[in-house]
Every structure is written in structure tokens, then in C-alpha cells.
User: What shape does this take?
Amino acid sequence: NTQKIIVIPGDGIGPEVTEEAVLTLQALGAGLEFTFLDRINADRYLRDGVALTDGELEEVRTAGTVLFGAVGDPRVTNPDYARGVLLRLRTDLDLYVNYRPAVLLDERLSPLRDESRRGIDCVVVRENTEGLYTGVGGSLRTGTPDEVTVDQETNTHLGVSRIVEYAYGVARRSVCMVDKSNAVRFGGQLWQRVWRETRDRHPELDSSHLYVDVAAMKLVKDPASFDVIVTNNSYGDILSDLTAELAGGLGTAASANINPVTGMGLYEPVHGSAPDIVGKGLANPAGAVLSAALLLRDRGLKSEAEALERAVRRTVAERRCTPDLGGTLNTRQAGEAIRAALD
Ligand code: NAI
Ligand code: MG
Assistant: This one.
């Protein structure tokens, strides 16, 4: 009963961290079969102008599960490349949930001075298919001093309803809905209305609402008070980098792009291709490995997922990790330490 996983390592440190994630999954012996689509990268885009082919998209659709590194390259300035790979996968596979957990890996990694407030254990549930990132908009008199640009924010009743409902479905204690409905009028009202209706159907959970600016402030002031945060695409993007840093740093943050109805999923570290550290062995593989743990969980391999998470936690506690977490190991050694810590 082997499950087929498509691996898209991508650019920069993407291949470095993804390789450690794959080796770690293989060490677990979870019966997964890997197909590498490593031709999807900036080199090919620069050469042929191709981001993702229809054939590749169908291959991914058939397999249904993707382990993804990162895309982005300083030589590529056209946003069509990253949009054509990652945003296209998210949109065309309708992966409408971006699930981004943030659990403090180790006390000493918290950037907060006040010890009593450090214990973050929350999930940002980010809407992943609409909002500000659909590419709807335009530019007039481009490149002139009279240039005018518009990027429109799309919010549909279906899109907002399903993400808010998902958030309530995975919450343990509470759901905090984050928007900017005091300034963004129409989408704001839609989020407010849908959220109130969903909240009333879930009296078993605590519900609250914060404007995004206040949410950012409160995350720093009292991160332990949050359980599930549900928000739109752009606010979720930004707040999840903040929660990642509060939990131990961008190098450790994992994410799942999923469609809970079809069961399709794309699993990737929250960080990007980090061109500033590529090839130096400085890339922390923890975010990629913990993303693989989210993949295992969604494929019904809960005990394997927990074994991975324990192993990462253990290595960080013993400082057998990369320099961003206070260790001295390189990417490969940090991956090996995680594999050695598997029980
Ligand atoms: P980034 O996440 O790549 O890097 C931000 C900072 O964090 C850098 O200083 C980097 O060295 C550090 N960092 C990131 N991952 C790390 C790791 N695993 N271990 C240790 N340090 C790590 O974000 P940046 O610099 O804004 O973007 C670089 C490229 O990545 C751009 O082309 C961007 O578009 C792309 N990107 C791609 C994403 C994706 O594929 N999902 C997500 C975010 C950015
Ligand atoms: Mg981001």
C-alpha cells in the first residue's frame, strides 16, 4: 500500500531542505514512493519561459500529494514565474486551506523577554485561493510618472464560508477571525457576516474578532492566548511569518496547502528560496521536515508524524541543529541528527 508523492524541490535552498525531508521520510519507512519533478525551477524558466506545464500539473493532480521546497530566484524579476508555479498549483488544485501551525520548539528560541508569555501554540488558517493574490487588476501608463495601478481583493461567499468553517472544524479552544473590515468595506462585511453565522453554529468554541493591526500587536504581547486564527490570503501570509518567528524562526515553520474535500495536499516550509544562504549549508531543514510531518498526518500516518516532530524537537533541545537555532551543524548534518533521533 505505497502512496505516491510528487517532490518539487524548486530553487535556492528548496532542493537542500527538501532532500533532507525525503531522506527522513525514507528513514521512517512509511511506504512512500517519490517522483521528483526537479525540472520545475528558475533555470528552465529563464531558458524556455516555462513555469509549470499542463502535463506537470496533471501529474501532480493524479498523485494528489506534493512535497514542495521553494521557488524564487534573484535572476527572475517577472512575478509570472512564482505565480505560474506555486500560485497556479494552489489555485488550479483548489488548495483553499493554508494551514500554518506555530508551536514553540524550545524555550530559548523565543524572541520574547517575558518568559510567562512565550508559549505559543497556534495555527494560522489562511485563505489560499482568493483575496489580494488572484492577479486581478491592472496598470495604466506603466513606467511613466503618471502610472496608476490597481490590485483587486477578491472575496467570494464560497471562499470565505469554507475557510471559516474549516477553522472552526480544527480549533481546540477558540477561533479568532482577523480582518480589516473597518477600512476594507465590501470584503470586510462579507467576512463579518459569514464569521458571525459560523460562530453561532459553534457555541462549543470561544470566538473573537481582531483587526489585523491589533492582531499583530496582540500576537507579540500575548501569543499564548491564540488557538486558531482565520484570515484572508495576504493577512495570513504576513501573520504566519510573525507566528513562525515567535515559535522558533522561519527556518522551522511548516505549512500545508490542502483541499479537505478532495484530500489533495501540497506541503512546504513557510520560508522561501533564501538566495542569501544557498549552497552554504546554512539552511535549516526543520521547516521542510515538519512539513513532511503534516503530510504524514494527512495521509493517516499519525504515529509516524509524531515521531518526526519528536525527533526535530529533541535535536533542537540538544542544539544538534543549524546556526539559526543556535547550533553548529550544516543542513545535511542537521538532517542526519533528526534521523538519528527517530525512535
Ligand atoms: P526567505 O524566506 O527566502 O528568506 C528570508 C530570510 O530567512 C533570509 O535571511 C534567509 O536566509 C532566512 N531563511 C529562510 N529560510 C531559512 C532556513 N531554512 N534556514 C535558515 N535561514 C532561513 O524570504 P525572501 O528572502 O523574502 O525570499 C527569497 C525568495 O524566495 C524570493 O524569490 C521569494 O519570492 C521566494 N519565496 C518563495 C516562497 C515559496 O516558494 N513558498 C515563500 C517566500 C518567498
Ligand atoms: Mg510568506
